[in-house]
Design goal:
By secondary structure, the protein is an alpha+beta fold. It contains 18 helices and 14 strands. The chain is about 50% helix and about 10% strand.
Length: about 400
């Protein structure tokens, strides 16, 4: 591994595509029976076949228990058709593109508030994760749900607990030992106090609707069906966990990509309309969601490899997004790609419902950063640090210099 940006950023060598390498085979089964899917076409095939490749992997961690069923009640990430189809229709009635687009003025305001506070605290630079990319999505999602301003701190505490649980599982994995409690907590990314809090607010919105997403969710209806309180809470939890984690990682990864390609940073600085192209190429080139998971529900074959019922599959989206069979010059960061069928937000029925919000936050934040700081760059004496989560590539620390 001598090329690419893996060494520059200190990434896990397991992300071989960050060293400009291609997978030897599009599908491979390791010594533990895990099916690793690296190819773009093969990943798309799995995404498009929910009958044979289930999104519901909770039983793999919890067994066939009541907890596993409750975990899925409002989860788009952990459900399959026909339940997923019905669930997505109802949620889409509440979580609309129009609602997301209307958030732009507030996202602009929050971004300036956060950066203003960072500038007041320390001149010459700031820590991007703590000062911007971590709090911005939490504030936006909390306000979108209708959570009181005074309770922002609670949401930050709960997200901290989720990330800590995921970090514990990653540490256990590295030693080959598993802590059952840590494994389950990290797999579910659930905090009981937060679920109870959201239940209370969902019940309140049924009695007294307000102009917020929680109210829209509890009253959204398709063919006479509404979401249960459990389903509303599960989706709100999922929106917070996935929406926050993905957006935080995407914003940091955009800055890393631009810092490594200063000519692209200058082009974007001069023409803010280029931000969508930079966002999409970041999602391909340095995919925040490195891996996604499926459970084989039948004996199948994928790229000539036999997959047995009950086997777990890891879809390596980062590798698929560098597949030379699909992308010309896959290891070049090129925001001008005319076609960019990356899988950064999934594909098909499981394409991320929160993608418009993540794209909006990324576009707004990166343009404000470049407009506000003419010499924005990483600190060579204080390199970025990455989250210890095996399926997410995102910074936990990203010091930036502005002077």
């Amino acid at each position: 591994m001598t090329n690419g940006l893996g060494d520059r950023w200190g990434l896990d060598p397991g992300y071989f595509w960050m060293w400009d390498e291609q997978a030897e085979h599009p599908v491979k089964i390791d010594e533990n029976g895990m099916v690793h899917v690296y190819g773009h076409a093969e990943t798309v095939e799995v995404y498009g076949d929910p009958r044979n490749y289930s999104n519901n992997i909770a039983p793999q961690f919890l067994g066939d228990t009541e907890d596993a069923g409750e975990f899925n009640s409002g989860s788009l990430l952990q459900s399959d058709p026909p339940h997923h189809t019905k669930l997505r229709k109802i949620i889409s009635r509440a979580f609309t593109p129009r609602m997301v687009a209307g958030l732009e003025p507030r996202i602009v305001e929050i971004t300036h508030e956060l950066l203003g506070a960072a500038d007041a605290e320390e001149a010459g630079g700031f820590e991007m994760v703590d000062d911007l990319t971590y709090p911005l999505p939490v504030i936006v999602i909390a306000e979108l749900l209708g959570i009181p301003h005074s309770d922002r701190g609670l949401f930050k505490k709960w997200v901290d607990q989720m990330l800590a649980a995921a970090g514990v599982m990653a540490a256990d994995d590295s030693t080959g030992e598993q802590s059952e409690d840590a494994d389950t907590a990290a797999a579910l990314r659930r905090v009981p106090e937060m679920l109870a809090y959201l239940h209370e607010h969902a019940a309140d919105r049924r009695r007294k609707p307000r102009a917020d997403l929680l109210s829209e969710l509890v009253h959204a209806e398709v063919d006479g069906a509404r979401l249960s309180d459990d389903a509303v809470v599960d989706f709100a939890n999922e929106l917070l966990v996935v929406g926050h984690g993905t957006t935080t990682a995407l914003l940091g990864n955009m800055l890393l990509c631009l810092d490594a390609h200063p000519q692209e940073m200058e082009r974007l600085r001069k023409d803010p309309a280029r931000a969508p192209g930079v966002t999409e190429e970041t999602l391909r080139f340095l995919s925040p969601i490195a891996g996604s998971y499926r459970l084989a529900t039948a004996d199948t074959e994928l790229a000539g490899v036999r997959v047995s019922q009950g086997q777990l599959l890891t879809l390596w989206l980062g590798a698929a997004n560098r597949d030379e069979r699909v992308f010309e010059q896959p290891h070049v960061f090129d925001p001008d790609r005319t076609t960019n069928p990356h899988l950064g937000f999934g594909r098909g029925i499981h394409f991320c419902l929160g993608a418009p919000l993540a794209r909006l936050e990324a576009r707004v934040a990166v343009n404000i950063l470049l407009d506000r700081y003419p010499t924005l760059r990483t600190d060579p004496d204080n390199p970025p640090e990455f989250l210890p989560i095996p399926d997410l590539i995102g910074t936990s620390k990203l010091p930036l210099l502005t002077g």
